[in-house]
Amino acid sequence: MIRTQSVAGRLWVWAVWLLVGFFILNLLGLIATVVVNSFSTRWFTTWLPVGFTTKWYLSAWEEFQLPDIMMATFEVVGAVVLLSGLIGVPAAYAMARREFPGKKFVMLLFLLPMLVPPITFGIPLATVLYKAGLAGSAIGVILANLVPTVPFVILVMIPFIQQIDPRVEQAAKVFGAGTFRMFTNVLVPLLTPGILAALLLVLVRTIAMFELTFLTAGPSNQTLVVALYYAVFAAGVRAGQSVDAMAVIYMVTTLAWLLLALQFVNPTQIVTRAKRK
Amino acid sequence: MRQALARKGIDGVTLLALPAVFFVIALFIYPFLYGLFLSFAPKDGSTLGNYIKFFSDPFLYDTIWKTLLIALPVTIINLAFSVPVALRVRLMVKPKLLTTILVIPITLGTVLVAEGMLNYFGPRGWLNRALLEFGLSDAPLHLIHNYWGVFLSLVITGFPFTFLLTLSYVTGIDPALEQAGAMLGARGWERFRFILVPLLLPGLMITFCLSFVQAFSVFPSAVLLGAPAGITRVISVAAYTAAFEEYDYSMASAIAMIMATVQVGIVAALLGVQSLLYRGPAGGGKG
């Protein structure tokens, strides 16, 4: 690799790293204030709070009805992960293995929901779901969340499937396996790492998906992130520490899954879909 | 019949794509078309009533400018910082720790970042405390509940997004091309200008479009960190208010269509500019 030798060049490199450092410092500070505040008794004019306590977690747990919210979150997230896998993986298989007329158009169809921001298509989608009487129910929330995740699974899975030698499938066919048996006994085991990666990414994205859930959820099926939004929105009604305790619970939930997902995928894949290694 | 179709590539396997196609049409294309038709059927019975109302009421049409005023500078700054950082990071042996830290704000989402910013950038937060302590400022900076609150939140969640996208394009360039340039006597700036920029341009255009579209649809942080009745009354807030506070779904659909049109317009304009500047394979250089 080419290394920079000149003084100006070195200064430039230092400036770039200083900038990254400054960004990360502020980012970590921002997360740390939420955590510190959630454990504080009182915190006004000092660097650190006067004292520490865990009582806010107990009060947040009751005030925000967190058991219900947690249940609703996992219900929505679980259904979205399962359904996007069931709809997405077979579609990805068809897209990876067959050339058919109109394939480019179908591909565009799958790309659009990922390129258009959720708030833009979320408002007409919520309108349709309200007219159909589905908004405000768990089904409505799940359907809305599936709109970006099904195409996401397809786009992540296509390169994984293309990596598999088609002769493996032909061999299965020769030995008399039908399409379904070939899928369950040959393809799914081979694709497990890819499916796992795709579904974990769907899971992390759905826990953090604010806009679509916000537009379609009723009071009984708010997910954690929507409940957090309302808590921050109505700040002042409750103690700030209580809101932050809830924020920490949300953060721990999301980051735990993120860490698990990062065992299987590269961090850049969360933004850029899968690239063939 | 079956064989004729199979020759065209349509058989049982192709049909596996049908549920997904049906799903996207039912829950993405249909709602969009429904919204489009609904936007031309306003409450007052005219055809263009919503659009006339939008473009004659400054409280409504100003939201386009307000949103552009936030989204364009943020996108340009994020991209301008992403390129030099990505060019350094690609030289790192183990960039995983850095990319992992940067993926955290994207994963946590705008709502949590907003709550953190209310604490951290607030008048008694750590940032203002540090500035006062070190004598860098005489009075606390006002960084929340105004334009800068939304701006900073879009930098905090948008910069990592832009950076990771840029990084994926930068690492796709064969390092041998730059080495060849260096051997022929090109210095750092020249290598950047004449080797990297032409190869990166198509990727950077896509990155710009994606980042811009994200920033243009800012919603939670505009409400939580901005002044949602004033300078940060962005277009998504107007659409939300129409739908869920005034229950005028027709008007809300019209605003959503205008929002989509502006996004598509900016993206199309950029791609048009790009086709004037450069013609060639997108993202190449990997030989």
Structure explained in plain terms:
The complex is a heterodimer of chains A (277) and B (287). Chain A is mostly helical and 277 residues long. Chain A has 2 domains: 7-53, no CATH class; 56-272, Orthogonal Bundle (MetI-like fold). Chain A is 75% helix and 0% strand. Chain A has 12 helices and no strands. In chain A, helix 2 crosses helix 11 (240-262) and helix 7 (166-174) packs across helix 8 (179-208). The longest helix of chain A is centred in the N-terminal third of the chain and has 32 residues, at 7-38. The two termini of chain A are 21 Å apart. The mean pLDDT of chain A is 88. Chain B is mainly α. Chain B has a single domain, classed as MetI-like (MetI-like fold). Helix content of chain B is 74%, strand content 0%. Chain B is built from 13 helices and no strands. Chain B has helices spanning 2-8, 12-15, 18-39, 49-56, 58-89, 96-120, 126-133, 147-170, 175-183, 188-216, 220-224, 235-244, 249-277. In chain B, helix 3 crosses helix 13, helix 6 runs antiparallel to helix 8 (147-170) and helix 12 runs antiparallel to helix 13. The radius of gyration of chain B is 24 Å and the shape is globular. The relative contact order of chain B is 0.13. The model of chain B is unreliable at 283-287 (pLDDT under 50). The chains are: A mainly alpha (277), B mainly alpha (287). At the A-B interface, helix 1, helix 3, helix 4, helix 5 and helix 6 of A face helix 2, helix 3, helix 5, helix 6 and helix 7 of B.
